[in-house]
Design goal:
The complex is a heterodimer.
Chain A: E1 4-13, E2 16-26, E3 31-35, H1 42-50, E4 57-62, E5 65-69, E6 72-73, E7 81-84, H2 96-105, H3 111-124, H4 140-152, E8 158-162, H5 170-187, E9 190-195, H6 198-204, E10 207-212, E11 215-220, H7 222-227, H8 232-239, E12 242-249, E13 252-254, E14 260-262, E15 272-278, E16 283-293, E17 296-299, E18 304-310, E19 313-319, E20 329-334, E21 338-341
Parallel strand pairs in A: 3-9, 3-10, 7-8, 8-9
Antiparallel strand pairs in A: 1-2, 1-4, 4-5, 5-6, 10-11, 12-13, 12-15, 13-14, 15-21, 16-20, 17-18, 18-19
Chain B: H1 2-6, H2 10-42, H3 47-81, H4 87-93, H5 96-99, H6 102-113, H7 119-124, H8 134-159, H9 162-170, H10 175-204, H11 207-214, H12 223-232, H13 235-269, H14 287-314, H15 330-336, H16 339-372, H17 376-389, H18 392-402, E1 407-412, E2 415-419, H19 425-450, H20 453-462, H21 466-494, H22 498-503, H23 511-522, H24 524-555
Antiparallel strand pairs in B: 1-2
Helix pairs in contact in B: 2-13, 2-16, 2-18, 3-8, 3-10, 6-8, 6-11, 6-14, 8-10, 8-11, 9-10, 10-13, 12-13, 13-18, 14-24, 15-24, 16-17, 16-19, 16-21, 17-19, 19-21, 20-21, 21-24, 23-24
Classes of the chains: A alpha+beta, B mainly alpha.
Chain lengths: 343, 556
């Protein structure tokens, strides 16, 4: 178990910057997610933490000890980490047992101790019965458990998880997510989890760092992130909120195309150019709102989604079923909105 | 993982260590030969005879390519796209012509169709068939190249998206019409590129034209056999041989350019994914006819020559009466236990093992370098694969000339070493390893490309250093591919004839040279025994390869 500190990390591939001056502190035993769309630099950040990539600039410390920095580069095998790869990376020429025993065999432990610890690790991931299986006889979920056991068996200071659930089907993903949470509660290992799935991040993390184009937009606990997004990007990515550009004047929001939305009285922010963020569930239909043509209605089961074209994008509302057909004009009102003044 | 090794100068050291032997033993000698050939070409008189050799080479190679295409295209369709019974067995049997050296097929056809004593002529009447001359050479080479067209066509047919054919069906085409108007045109570039390979193979082959051309009346000379004759004349012939080698070498890039263009045209239109397993075309009532035709082809073109060789090896003397009491095992015991054969076998196996090991090591290194240097990597591959395209006669001549004298290197003051390769078996090892390096490189690079880099990264994070991670995670997964490269190289070297004939030093013997000598100068029956042994070796090797392939497929 160890803390992690990233200071001003930068990394480019050729002329393309991937990570730009990223800083992040992870406390001992904390579970932190790196969340963002593909290409935002989250996997690169994790790989730099693992030592598989070297930052162009910046410093990485694990447990207070510098592992990467100007003139210093501790190779991955000397960092004392565990890592689970997106592709599982379970060695096909070794049995389950041999895969899990590998990190221990490199540490020259007595054979009896290796066997005992492999058994324990397999018990953690509920694979006790499959120790002698060959990997090609395992399912995707089982392979991911082998990878998890292998990453944990040597008692790593930090466990790195690179989209470990994204190759699994929905039901398995749910199951493994629950197990990951249970394991974490049991072992208390510091974990850094890379994902593009906001649901996973919200469910598992102590804190989430939202990345966009190589920089951190916000670091916060899941609830704070969801309710108090610091930027329109975070609001859009984490809550699936509507994001509209325009300007504020006279208690209302005006889009460049001339659509006017009344703002709820408690909305904070002064007049001038601004970005408006509204969650779909905060968009109400009916009453005295702005009249907009409905372009589509999607049935979601517990509710319905309504889509309105506004200035070339779509304004989405989620709410109870209303009889309406595409083309019909409905009135739209915001229950709650958030304004970000534009710089 | 590449990033960790990418910036270190280590990779440049590795590149230099890999390049040095390749430049010294393959590129350098050929460049020297080219320079010499250019010099000699200007001062050449009596060009007429040499032009004849060039014309013969072109005619024979074109004929062989045409035959391989004419037989290979319908066979590919029948074997890979229809419900022909026993198609897998046929597909396996039809790979034999390329696996067994062409020289042996030439021997087989000589037993069958030499004008007087050939078995077929004895059935049909003396002199009906004559395998000697340009037509015979093209015939034997075309058959021996048949698998190149067949396999290229088969691969393409499997890659053609079945939806294309189904779309034609929905548009109203009959099954046969859909096959002929959509799938066949798409596979055509691959079939043609296979035919170009047959052209090149024939142009650079030496054994068959020698066997069927030089002793014919009038003799048919092609570039390779002409070079051989000139080399035997030594000094005054060497300049002229170099000039001819230059011409022969120029055929390769021209033909390869053609293949590349065809391949590119073909790739654009083929689906990149794996074979989607289109439904085999039902032959219906034509099945009996198709079955009979394919069976006859297989029997006549593959099994008959081998049977003829076996018969020749068992007859008291070639040309003797065909009767039970004329059969004997005397040749077998005579040839196989003769000290000369045993010595040749020993040296051949040693050389083939050495070359196989070198090819695996250098090929793996080439594959790794290719990955470490992204853009330069293509150059590394080209350099490693290139000697394979150089005709054996040319490569052997280049080595012969470059190392005909000793090279003295002074390392430090008074510490010198002499590279004396001339007239030693080492030159053969160099030739074999250089020529077949492509097998190791291709196999290694393909296997490496299929490996997920996270497998090695997982070992690094688990606590293994770069070398340990390579040994534990990468190398075991490359092993089947490298083993396959070893077996292929071993078989090719153990049965190699073209380069062996030119490079075997006086006083020693390898199998290929022994076979060539027995057939050309001494004793066709003894040669047939040796040829049968070659065939057995090749078939055993193919079985090993098939098993390796199955194991590799299971591990994935």
């Amino acid at each position: 178990m160890a803390s992690i500190s990233l200071e001003g990390l930068s990394k480019s591939y050729g002329a393309t910057p991937v990570v730009r001056g990223l800083s992040l502190e992870v406390r001992e035993g904390e579970f932190v997610s790196l969340l963002g769309p593909s290409g935002c630099g989250k996997t690169t950040t994790l790989r730099m933490l693992a030592g598989l990539e070297h930052p162009d600039a910046g410093v990485i410390r694990i447990g207070g000890e510098m592992v990467a920095g100007p003139g210093l580069r501790v190779p991955p095998e000397k960092r004392g980490l565990g890592m689970v790869f997106q592709s599982y990376a379970v060695w096909p020429h070794r049995t389950v047992e041999e895969n899990v025993a590998y990190p221990l065999s490199l540490r020259r432990l007595p054979r009896s101790e290796v066997a005992a610890r492999v058994q324990e690790a397999l018990r953690w991931v509920r694979l006790e019965g499959l120790a002698t299986r060959e990997p090609h006889a395992l399912s995707g979920g089982q392979l991911q458990r082998v990878a998890l056991a292998r990453a944990l068996v040597a008692g790593p200071r930090v466990l790195l998880l690179d989209e470990p659930l994204s190759n699994l089907d929905a039901a398995l993903r749910e199951e493994l997510r629950a197990e990951l949470a249970a394991l974490r509660a049991r072992l208390g290992t510091t974990m850094v989890f890379v994902t593009h799935d906001q649901g996973e991040a919200l469910a598992l993390s102590d804190r989430i760092a939202v990345l966009n184009r190589g920089v951190i937009e916000q670091v916060a606990p899941p609830e704070a992130l969801y309710h108090e997004p610091a930027t329109p990007f975070v609001a859009g990515f984490v809550g699936g909120a509507n994001v509209l550009a325009g300007h504020v004047g006279g208690g209302a929001f005006h889009t460049p195309g001339g659509t006017r939305f009344a703002l709820p009285p408690e909305t904070r922010g002064g007049d001038g150019p601004a970005t408006l963020v509204v969650r779909p569930e905060d968009v109400e239909l009916g009453g005295d709102g702005t009249p907009l043509p409905l372009s589509a209605r999607l049935f979601l089961g517990h509710a319905a989604e309504y889509r309105f074209p506004v200035d070339g994008t779509l304004l989405r509302a989620v709410g109870p079923r209303v009889e309406a057909r595409a083309g019909q004009t409905l009135h739209v009102r915001f229950r709650k909105a958030r304004l970000f003044s534009q710089l | 993982m590449s990033a960790s090794t990418a910036r270190t100068p280590l990779r440049w050291v590795a590149l230099a260590a890999w390049l040095a032997p390749l430049l010294a033993f393959a590129v350098g000698p050929v460049v020297l030969l080219l320079a010499r050939g250019l010099g000699a070409a200007g001062a050449m008189e009596g060009l007429a005879t040499e032009v004849g050799a060039l014309v013969n080479t072109l005619v024979v190679s074109t004929g062989a390519a045409a035959l391989a295409l004419a037989l290979g295209a319908p066979l590919a369709l029948l074997l890979f796209r229809t419900d022909l019974p026993w198609r897998r067995v046929y597909a396996a049997l039809f790979t034999l012509p390329s696996a067994i050296p062409a020289f042996i097929w030439g021997m087989g056809w000589l037993s069958l169709a030499s004008p007087r004593a050939g078995y077929l002529n004895r059935l049909l009447g003396e002199g009906t068939l004559d395998i000697h001359g340009p037509v015979g050479i093209a015939f034997v080479e075309g058959l021996s190249g048949l698998p190149l067209v067949l396999l290229a066509g088969g691969a393409a047919l499997r890659r053609v998206d079945p939806a294309l054919e189904e779309a034609a069906r929905v548009c109203g085409a009959s099954p046969a019409r859909a096959l002929l108007t959509t799938t066949l045109p798409l596979a055509l570039p691959s079939l043609l590129s296979g035919a170009v390979m047959v052209f090149l193979m024939t142009a650079s082959s030496f054994g068959v034209p020698y066997l069927l051309g030089v002793s014919a009346s009038p003799p048919t000379r092609v570039l390779t056999t002409r070079i051989y004759e000139l080399v035997l004349r030594a000094d005054e012939g060497l300049g002229r041989a170099s000039a001819l080698a230059l011409v022969l070498l120029l055929l390769t890039p021209v033909a390869l350019l053609g293949t590349w263009a065809l391949g590119r045209a073909g790739r654009v239109r083929l689906s990149a994914g794996k074979g989607l397993g289109s439904r085999p075309f039902a032959l219906g009532r034509a099945q009996a006819w198709a079955s009979g035709a394919v069976g006859l082809c297989c029997a006549v073109f593959v099994l008959l020559p081998l049977a003829a060789l076996l018969l020749t090896s068992l007859q008291r003397g070639f040309g003797a009466r065909l009767a039970w009491e004329e059969l004997t095992l005397a040749h077998w015991s005579g040839v196989l236990w003769e000290p000369r054969t045993l010595r040749a076998t020993g040296l051949s196996l040693l050389l083939a093992t050495g070359a196989g090991a070198l090819v695996c090591a250098l090929g793996l290194a080439a594959a790794l370098l290719q990955r470490a240097f992204r853009r330069l990597g293509a150059g590394v591959e080209a350099l490693a694969v290139w000697p394979y395209a150089v005709p054996g006669t040319v490569l052997a001549l280049a080595l012969l000339l470059a190392f005909s004298r000793d090279w003295r290197f002074i390392l430090v003051e008074r510490v010198a070493f002499v590279l004396a390769l001339a007239h030693t078996p080492w030159l053969l090892l160099v030739a074999y390893a250089g020529k077949y390096l492509a097998l190791g490189t291709r196999n290694g690079a393909e296997a490496l490309a299929q490996l997920d880099p996270s497998l090695a990264e997982a070992a690094r994070v688990s606590g293994a250093g770069p070398a340990r991670a390579f040994r534990d995670a990468t190398l075991p997964l490359l092993r089947p591919a490298l083993l396959a490269a070893f077996v292929l190289t071993f078989l090719a070297c153990a049965t190699e004839i073209t380069m062996s004939v030119l490079l075997v030093p006086a006083g020693s013997e390898v199998l290929g040279k022994l076979l060539f000598d027995l057939q050309s100068y001494a004793d066709p029956a003894a040669a047939a025994v040796l040829a049968c042994a070659f065939v057995a070796l090749v078939v055993a090797g193919q079985v090993v390869l098939a098993l390796l392939g199955r194991r590799a497929a299971e591990a994935r």
